[in-house]
Amino acid sequence: MDRRQIWLSLATLAMFAAVPPLTVIFDQPFYMDMIARIMVFAIAAVSLDLILGHGGMVSFGHAVYMGVGAYAVGILSYYGLDNGFLQIPVALGASALIGLVFGAMSLRTTGVYFIMITLAFAQMLYFLAISLEEFGGDDGMSSMRSEFGGVIDMYDAMQFYYVIFVVLALVLFGLHRLVLSRFGMVIRAARSNDRRMQAVGFPTYRYKLAAFTLASTICGLAGVLFANLNEFVSPDVMHWTHSGELMVMVIMGGMGTLIGPVLGATAFLLLEEYLPQWMEMAMTNAGEHWAIIMGPILIAIVLFGRGGIHALFAATIWRSGGKRNG
Amino acid sequence: MAEPILQIEGLAKSFGSLVATDDLHLDIEQGEIHAIIGPNGAGKTTLIAQLSGELKSDSGRVRFAGRDITTLSMPARSALGLARSFQITSIFPDFSALDNVALSVQAHAGHSFRFWRPAGRDPGLRAPAQKILDEIGLGSRADEPAANLSHGEQRQLEIAMALATRPSLLLLDEPMAGMGRDESAKMVNLLRDLKGRHTIVLIEHDMDAVFALADRITVLVYGRAIATGAPGDIRANDEVRAAYLGTETAQEVSSA
Lengths: 326, 256
Prior knowledge:
The complex is a heterodimer.
Chain A: H1 3-25, H2 29-54, H3 63-78, H4 84-106, H5 111-131, E1 141-142, H6 157-180, H7 182-192, H8 194-199, H9 204-230, E2 232-233, H10 240-253, H11 259-282, H12 291-304, H13 308-319
Chain B: E1 6-15, E2 18-28, E3 33-37, H1 44-52, E4 59-64, E5 67-68, H2 74-80, E6 82-85, H3 97-107, H4 123-136, H5 151-163, E7 169-173, H6 181-194, E8 199-203, H7 207-213, E9 216-221, E10 224-229, H8 231-236, H9 238-255
Helix pairs in contact in B: 3-4, 3-5, 4-5
């Protein structure tokens, strides 16, 4: 981990921290919602980066844990249990448990089979959610924002924003430490050469499973925030396309860099928001076909932008005199 | 005489109709360098894979330090003190040479469910790893990414990674593979240094190295041990000459 990465992380977080005062000054409250949403997806993307980028586990069902976290909030809220101090442990426990079970089975496989089996499990839960008529089935259900006994008011846009911000910062810092720890060394080395890891004496399966479970749990926390953000929960959040989008955010931002996926989530969601508008300006009714432009952008990043946005920034800082520290 | 450190009893492994290991019986004595030679396809690497736990055997038993390890996994065997190196260099190319060895140290320093303190600044891992790199002659290359090391250095790193697990038995699968003369000579010296401190099972095609190092040699042909003995006996063994060495190599060996 080099110093540039730490500076890039701090700069990014500083920008996020500066958003609320700026939206107040310029009287543009809409942007606060938008960036809050970006940060929620950034938390999910960073959690995916732990297993995808650092652990080499290509999970194609990661959005499902966002769904588990969101449904934990939604269902508890449905029964009148809006207390966040209850909701969060339930949500984290549920996503950890499901991550543990799915991971335990998926990690028996590798490569394409792993991708397919994680997708299959995710689809299973997606259809389960659709079948839950009591909780709105296909249409989903609206939910209240979590209550924290008057300590934090989640309906206050500014407070809610900084709650998400603090969670993102803590997740980034925690995973930054984790990646460099003994545990982090094990999962990173296992990505590089699993056979060798076993030969020197690491039972790698249990470490990969622990990482998978941890990533699921963090993504579940993103789901809690997501439900609060929308005041609404539906099976759509678990749809496989959203798992795909999380992967795109990670790859676009730079795999195995933690801060990269935050930038990836930012770029992806900004493009998703503004690309249709720009295209609409260029040509009437062009906006709905925004994927025509988005697709080639993604392909170009994968083909030519090795290391994603992170590499771009890191290179710029490097050129402008940042000190290299390997 | 002390009990052999490794006892192989009736070990077998087939891939379809191909018999790779055929009712093999072999004892490895404490402290010896035991070379296993044989023509290509004799089942040498398969044997290493069976002994290290990477491949399940069809039948037979392996006892290591008095304990039946036949059904143990690779990590479990490593934990008991059995280490291997790979014929095709198997390292962590993105990590520094020191990281590579430190990982081996870490594997045998308790569990790795430690999430907070940076492993890269942990003297309990770095110091022993650096010591082993120094011993093996890679001390000055510690911070170099393993991918940037020369082929010979990478082969040395392989050995260092195995040594860092503090094994009582080393399984070395062609440590000189792909090496030039100078590099091979260095490796022979290195293995000679290890002699006495470690028991070594050495698979090697380089006959000069084998006859220079081995206390005993086993000749493997089609998965069977056709002869086991001191280098002199093997050299003089007609069956070995006929089955494996061939006239040209036999002369080379006789004159070695």
